[in-house]
Amino acid sequence: MNLTISGHHLEVTPAIREYVQSKLERVRRHFDQVIDIAVILTVDNLTEKEKRQKAEINLRLSGKTVYVESLSHDLYAAIDTLVDKLDRQVMKYKNKVQDHNHQAIKHMPEEMPEDLPEEETPSAA
């Protein structure tokens, strides 16, 4: 699994990098078939009073790409809500994949009844 953490208008400190990695462990614990993760952390200076912190993530799974974003006044709060949203999306995808992998009843092989007399069983002639 490749993990890329980048920042726009923000320097990604080792503390932020460690925080993101520790939060993403929860997602990897639920679903381990992750190909790569790209995290983008952004600080938008809209006005002097209001600074908006944005966290985005692109998670590539086998057969699907999950995109989630979160906005907050605090970067750590944005990362927390981002991971919560991502976890719900991954669990939904995991349940969908598991439900569709079961074989249908009509495709299962038929079992031969054991109580038939020998003359009614098909012979290999």
Which properties best describe this structure?
HPF/YfiA_ribosome-assoc, translation regulation, alpha+beta, 125 residues, RHF/RaiA, 4 strands, four-stranded mixed sheet, 31% strand
- Report the C-alpha radius of gyration, rounded: 25 Å
Low-confidence stretches: none
Q: Which strand-content bin applies to the residues?
A: 25-35%
Shape: elongated
Specify the number of helices.
Answer: 2
Helical amount = 25-40%
Largest sheet: 4 strands, mixed
Number of strands: 4
N-to-C span: 56 Å
Mean pLDDT: 82
Strand order of the largest sheet: 1-2-3-4
Helix and strand run: EHEEEH
Keywords: Translation regulation
Subunit structure: Associates exclusively with 100S ribosomes, which are dimers of 70S ribosomes.
InterPro entries: HPF/YfiA_ribosome-assoc (IPR050574), RHF-like (IPR036567), RHF/RaiA (IPR003489)
Pfam families: Ribosomal_S30AE (PF02482)
